[in-house]
């Protein structure tokens, strides 16, 4: 994640379920500490997004991670 | 959460465990959609924080929510 933000300026992850969302937030916190050493500050913007999985509609969490 | 940000300009929540962190992120996403209607954009900054619970050291997720 730190690499993607360093190169592209932003990253996006989607998660379904508490475990996946927890992992995603931890990944942001870890990427943030890496990038902070390089003087890059990142923030994340959570929103809900509907995704279709096996023709079933599920609500996922979308995390946009960008330079803050 | 939306109310706290509206009044104080920022909010902070700490969570331990996947379920609590998931709830916290959902709360941010919901607060964000409320505040967006008022023209206020918010972002969140996750980090790790060590907290002592019953004299045991646990690692919590700290979410700082601020105007973006």
Automatic annotation (TrEMBL), chains A, B:
Record InterPro entries: Alba-like_dom_sf, SpoVS
Molecular function GO terms recorded: nucleic acid binding
Coiled coil: none
Pfam families (UniProt xref): SpoVS
Superkingdom, natural source: Bacteria
PANTHER family in the cross-refs: STAGE V SPORULATION PROTEIN S
Name of the protein in question: Stage V sporulation protein S
Native organism: Herpetosiphon geysericola
């Amino acid at each position: 994640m730190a690499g993607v933000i360093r190169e592209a300026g932003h990253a996006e992850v989607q998660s379904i379920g508490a475990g996946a969302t927890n992992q995603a937030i931890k990944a942001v916190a870890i990427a943030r500490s890496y990038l902070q050493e390089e003087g890059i500050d990142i923030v994340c913007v959570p929103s809900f997004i509907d995704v279709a999985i096996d023709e079933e509609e599920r609500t996922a969490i979308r995390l946009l991670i960008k330079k803050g």
